[in-house]
Amino acid sequence: MATVSKFDEEFGPIARNHLNQFLERVGKSLSGHSGRLLEIGPQERSDVQRMFANFQRETFDIIDTYRPTHVGDITKHNPGIPDATHDCVIGMEVLEHTLEPFAAVREMRRILKHGGHLLISAPLNWRIHGPIPDCWRFTEHGFKVLLRDFEILEIDILETPGRDLFPVHYNVLAKCDKQKCTLDGELKFRFIT
């Protein structure tokens, strides 16, 4: 049986606070927007409804335990949600639990309207956690590849003290661009020595 480390105990609340501050800040910046918002995998721990009160919130989950608006697999086409129907999609701490993260991002892009906002987050320097499976970790470069056909507005990084270039956690804000089709050679990454 795995035990919780001192690092986990110390940084769990810090990472949760980092995520909540990001949501609070972006919620305020989008307070002049409205429309439909889809929150993916919120279970019962979501503050999104309060932070994005100007949006009509719907929820999406792979199981119906928490009575989501939509039940489905975000890595598959979900015919119950038509193309380009949502102004905002939020998937905090979701991508690392999907079997196909690229397919999940494609489905989120399909659901979003052109110009709609995507908020996603994922840990990097963090232990395996539930809900199972916990399959992936993404660097800032990985997020740029995953979101190659979005305009990335912000990559919010929670650094690991004393461990440069291995952040605890990332939050990402991006805008959907239905016209964008970025080729591999067009991707740009921050230079790191």
- Beta-strand fraction estimate: 25-35%
**Beginning-to-end CA distance, first to last residue:** 38 Å
Strand order of the largest sheet: 3-2-1-4-5-7-6
Give unreliable regions as ranges.
none
Radius of gyration: 16 Å
What is the topological layout?
Elements: H1 6-29, E1 35-40, H2 48-51, E2 55-61, E3 70-71, E4 86-92, H3 101-111, E5 112-123, H4 140-146, E6 150-158, E7 169-176
Parallel strand pairs: 1-2, 1-4, 2-3, 4-5
Antiparallel strand pairs: 5-7, 6-7
Quick structural overview:
By secondary structure, the chain is an alpha/beta fold. It has a single domain, classed as Rossmann fold. The protein has 4 helices and 7 strands; from the N terminus they run αβαβββαβαββ.
Task: Describe the protein's architecture and organization.
By secondary structure, the chain is of the alpha/beta class. It has helices at 6-29, 48-51, 101-111, 140-146, and strands spanning 35-40, 55-61, 70-71, 86-92, 112-123, 150-158, 169-176. It has a single domain, classed as Rossmann fold. The protein has a seven-stranded mixed beta sheet, with helices on both faces. β4 (86-92), α3 (101-111) and β5 (112-123) form a beta-alpha-beta unit. It is globular, with a radius of gyration of 16 Å.
